[in-house]
Write a structure and sequence with these properties.
six-stranded mixed sheet; Cytidine Deaminase, domain 2; Rossmann fold
Length: 533
């Protein structure tokens, strides 16, 4: 156990700071401070010693140099049980500093300002704060370092229980948190300088010129633990939920849970899938998700009609599903969902931009069902997709490719009708959200059969047609990748499919197109693949 006799306090976030500062002062701890923190403590009646008075040097270089002094870092880094260190401290009149309370201004908030310039961002990079934190954390055997207000109550309790002392075990835990704090801070700076600042320097808009948008040589990720989950994909797997420090826009990870039980591992995966699908559509849209795949998707004039049409695609698979909606949920839509649930369709969670008060009350009657509010979907940002593999990570741009009717290449003898074109474009946009291999059948803007995640495209077609049953006749078909052989086209033709949209590019494109012509089907090519592994 080591007694706290001198503390240095310099914080951006002053939440509950007076609680711990008063607790230290009441124990006779000498408090060193600087800048705004010193004023805050002094205004509260707490005696403090300015760092400049302690070191004998004023703040200088426009505040760039405040705590960078041997009396500060000698006091932090000296090993109290090292005779040589003690002799050097005495020779240079350096006194030990036993505690540092410091947190850093969130760099993301600085550079998020729309008019931020690179010189201004650079000027906001803290040097003294991270240096103090690292010094204190390195010397944790002798120094305690606090970086979060949530740590204060526990530290005060331990000081109360141990006559102003802290255990080495506690100081080690605090040191780990401090290194995580500085690591996140440096990561935010590196990310800004790699991405946004490089565009400022070169004048290149990376969103417009993807060829110059090289991925960083080093990828450092930082996620903050939100909570421990009950379990992972299966009950025997441990799991936790982490998320980014700031929101990238509307997402399942940052949605506000309005009611229901805590989200599970699988809930979060399916809620993400549901929201990402409905973001893609402008008209009122509903996606019904099961095991990360849509089992129903539709757009309509109203949200309640979109839900009803999506549900009709595969009512059986919708049992135990997640519902995603892209409009504010009204009482009419809520009642439609409730009626389906009363008829035996179990809905495990719902996510939407927002809800009317009446709609929320109606949906919340199922006490355990999570209801999530994601906020306006128009604010969504395009973020890199990262997937872990053992010993590595794969990073890619999101699949945001869309296509207009004018860009479609008609390769069949029969041209698709305007109605078919509308359905084909809907089906093409939808199929990119279905695990490959994917075949998706559509009437109007309503899915009627989905074959997802099959190793064979023929099997995917068979499943989609079987699920559609009689509705396959007169439907259009989207395939996320080309048809390697005509067999899938034959199956579609026999089922009464009228039009097909697919990327093309197979060595067998000619016989595939000939088969479509033989059945009188229209076929259009996109030249783009929509694999989703």
């Amino acid at each position: 156990m080591r007694k706290i006799e001198r503390a240095l306090i310099s914080v951006y976030d002053k939440t509950h700071l007076l609680d711990i500062a008063n607790a230290l002062a009441q124990r006779g701890v000498e408090i060193l401070s600087t800048g705004g923190t010193a004023r805050h403590l002094r205004d509260a009646g707490i005696d403090i010693l300015d760092v400049s008075d302690y070191t004998g040097f004023p703040e200088m270089l426009d505040g760039r140099v405040k705590t960078l002094h041997p009396k500060i870092h000698g006091g932090l880094l000296a090993e109290r049980d090292n005779a040589e260190h003690n002799a050097q401290m005495e020779a240079h009149r350096i006194t030990p500093i036993d505690m540092v309370i410091c947190n850093l201004y969130p760099f993301e908030a600085t550079v998020a300002k729309p008019d931020m310039t690179l010189p201004e961002a650079i000027e906001n990079i803290d040097i003294g704060g991270p240096t103090m934190l690292r010094a204190a954390a390195k010397n944790y055997r002798h120094v305690a370092v606090l970086t979060e207000a949530s740590q204060y109550p526990q530290i005060v309790s331990e000081l109360d229980a141990n006559d102003g002392c802290l255990s080495e075990e506690r100081r080690f835990e605090l040191a780990k948190a401090a290194f995580a704090h500085t690591a996140h801070y440096d990561t935010a700076i590196a990310a800004y300088l790699t991405d946004d600042a490089s565009a400022l320097i070169t004048g290149v808009d990376k969103a417009e010129d993807s060829e110059t948008d090289e991925f960083a040589a080093d990828l450092t990720l930082h996620f903050k633990k939100e909570r421990t989950l009950r379990y992972g994909e299966n009950p025997h797997q441990r799991a936790a939920f982490y998320r980014t420090e700031t929101t990238p826009g509307p997402s399942a990870a940052w949605a506000n849970q309005l009611s229901g039980q805590p989200l599970s591992f699988n809930n979060l995966l399916d809620l993400e899938a549901a929201l990402e699908i409905v973001k893609d559509f402008e008209n009122p849209t509903c996606a019904i998700i099961k095991h990360n795949n849509p089992c129903g998707l539709a757009t309509a004039d109203t949200l309640q009609d979109a839900f009803t049409n999506a549900l009709e695609c595969d009512r059986t698979s919708a049992f135990g599903s997640i519902v995603g909606l892209n409009r504010k949920v009204t009482i009419q839509a809520a009642n439609t969902i409730r009626e389906a649930a009363q008829a035996g369709v179990k809905i495990d969670a719902i996510i939407a931009p927002s809800y009317t008060e009446k709609a929320l009350r109606a949906l919340s009657r199922v006490k355990r069902r999570p209801i999530l509010e994601a906020g306006s979907l128009s604010a969504a940002e395009s973020v890199l997709q990262i997937r872990n593999i053992t010993g590595g990570a794969l990073v890619q741009d999101p699949d945001v490719h869309d296509i207009e009717a004018e860009a479609l290449q008609v390769v069949s003898k029969r041209k698709p009708t305007d109605e078919e074109i509308n359905s084909l474009l809907f089906a093409w946009k939808a199929c990119k959200h279905v695990k490959s291999n994917c075949i998706l059948l559509v009437h109007g803007t309503q899915s009627v059969g989905i074959g997802a995640g099959q190793m064979s495209r023929v099997d995917a077609a068979i499943i989609a047609i079987r699920k559609a049953d009689e509705k396959a006749k007169g439907a259009v078909l989207a395939s996320d990748a080309y048809f390697p052989f005509p067999d899938g086209i034959e199956i579609a033709g026999e089922a009464g499919i009228t039009a097909i949209i697919q990327p093309g590019g197979s060595v067998n494109d000619a016989p595939v197109i000939e088969t479509a012509d033989a059945y009188g089907m229209a076929m259009v090519l996109t030249g783009v693949r929509h694999f989703r592994h």
